[in-house]
């Protein structure tokens, strides 16, 4: 996916101008478009990956390698300047750069399915999530409501009905990420009626926000059936570790103003950060202070607790695979996301780090809520998605 993302960037003239400003072209025997030089692509990736930290020398080296431009104004480089894996260090390149240019050994970075996760994701409405108890229209377009088929008994007659019981997030056009306890019970898969995309307040047919003379309304809701339920194989049915699941939809989500994917911590620098003390946002249609479920999507910002604070309440298999945060907010559902604003492809995006797993069982006051750590399950996610 890294090479593909770079190619997308390189076909935009402004991108090449940004990287190769004031480049002095030169002559060389093997002058080819940069998109055809694999070692140069890895080098470019490292420039964008570090996004300004100690890369001036690398930018200058890149400029010196330019040998022209093709008909589409895409830079051409002297490809032999960039060492391939296993070759000696070329003059003018440090050992550190050679190591960085080499293909990543990270199994997630080079996973065959990593390209199925969109690079355009987690867009923040405006510049930041605004304060307030309730979500804005289009603020969290990746939120999904999971609908369960249930039955009601009255006068010796059973009536089938559907109810919204859990939340999830869009990670691409065919998959919803959620908690395993939302889709499996006592070793058996629950009956799912489908997934609703694009909802803000499920008590109304039309979602509107604003004042009378400046009101925005949205009617586009997508109710999609589930083609396949994929709970983690280590989930035992109780609220322990591996409380994570994927739902493959029967048809693709139509991406729209109120339907878009969330970013996942797919890059190593995102997966390796220390979450302790960081503020994140939880969104969901869950319990309120009463406690009563709300039909309107709500949000709250809360910090992640230390491992020591969480450890006394961890289930024995959870350690290092989960994190916890305050439950005072009384917001969220099983499967709801814990999101942290992070740098993703050089832009500030919402990245999902957690899936609400357990907590708030009897009271949402003065309690801890535990989240499955998505960064620890990226390989599992990639292993279980397909085109």
From TrEMBL:
Signal sequence, renumbered to the chain: 1-16
Family note: Belongs to the peptidase S1 family. CLIP subfamily.
Localization per Swiss-Prot or TrEMBL: Secreted
InterPro entries: CLIP, CLIP_sf, Peptidase_S1_PA, Peptidase_S1_PA_chymotrypsin, Peptidase_S1A, Ser/Thr_Proteases_Immune/Dev, Trypsin_dom, TRYPSIN_HIS
UniProt-listed Enzyme Commission number(s): 3.4.21.-
PROSITE patterns with a match to the protein in the record: TRYPSIN_DOM, TRYPSIN_HIS
Keyword match Ribonucleoprotein: no
Domain comment (free text): The clip domain consists of 35-55 residues which are 'knitted' together usually by 3 conserved disulfide bonds forming a clip-like compact structure.
Annotated SMART domains: Tryp_SPc (SM00020)
A Pfam short name: CLIP
Domain Peptidase S1: 129-386
Gene3D superfamilies in alphabetical order: 3.30.1640.30, Trypsin-like serine proteases
Protein name: CLIP domain-containing serine protease
Keywords: Disulfide bond, Hydrolase, Protease, Secreted, Serine protease, Signal
Domain of life: Eukaryota
């Amino acid at each position: 996916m890294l090479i593909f993302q770079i190619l997308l960037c390189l076909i935009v003239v402004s991108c090449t101008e940004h990287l190769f400003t004031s480049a002095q072209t030169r002559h060389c025997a093997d002058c080819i478009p940069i998109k055809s030089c694999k070692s140069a692509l890895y080098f470019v990736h490292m420039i964008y990956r570090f996004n300004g930290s100690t890369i001036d020398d690398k930018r200058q080296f890149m400029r010196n390698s330019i040998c022209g431009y093709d008909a589409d104004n895409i830079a051409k480089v002297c490809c032999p300047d960039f060492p391939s894996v296993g070759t000696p260090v070329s003059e003018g390149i440090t050992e550190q750069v050679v190591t960085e240019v080499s293909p990543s050994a990270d199994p997630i970075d080079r996973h065959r399915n990593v390209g199925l996760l969109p690079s355009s994701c987690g867009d923040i409405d405006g510049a930041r999530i605004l304060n307030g108890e309730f979500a804005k229209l289009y603020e969290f377009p990746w939120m999904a409501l999971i609908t369960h088929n249930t039955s009601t008994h009255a006068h010796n007659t059973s009536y089938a009905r559907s109810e919204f019981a859990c939340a999830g997030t869009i990670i691409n056009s065919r998959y919803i990420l959620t908690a395993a306890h939302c889709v499996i019970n006592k070793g058996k898969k629950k009956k799912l009626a489908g997934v609703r995309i694009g909802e803000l307040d499920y008590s109304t047919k039309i979602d509107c926000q604003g004042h009378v003379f400046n009101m925005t309304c949205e009617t586009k809701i997508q109710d999609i059936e589930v083609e396949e339920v994929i709970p983690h194989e280590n989930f035992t049915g109780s609220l322990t570790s591996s409380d994570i699941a994927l739902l493959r939809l029967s048809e693709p989500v139509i991406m729209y103003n109120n339907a878009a994917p969330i970013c996942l911590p797919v890059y190593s620098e995102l997966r390796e950060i220390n979450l302790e003390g960081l503020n994140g946002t939880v969104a969901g249609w869950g319990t309120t202070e009463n406690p009563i479920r709300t039909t309107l999507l709500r949000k709250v910002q809360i910090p992640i607790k230390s491992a020591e604070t969480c450890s006394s309440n961890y289930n024995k298999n959870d350690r290092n695979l989960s994190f916890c945060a305050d439950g005072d907010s009384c917001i969220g559902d099983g499967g709801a996301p814990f999101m942290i604003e992070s740098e993703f492809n050089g832009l500030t995006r919402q990245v999902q780090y957690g899936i609400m797993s357990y907590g708030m069982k009897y009271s949402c006051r003065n309690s801890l809520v535990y989240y499955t750590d998505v960064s620890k399950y990226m390989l599992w996610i990639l292993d279980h998605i397909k085109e």
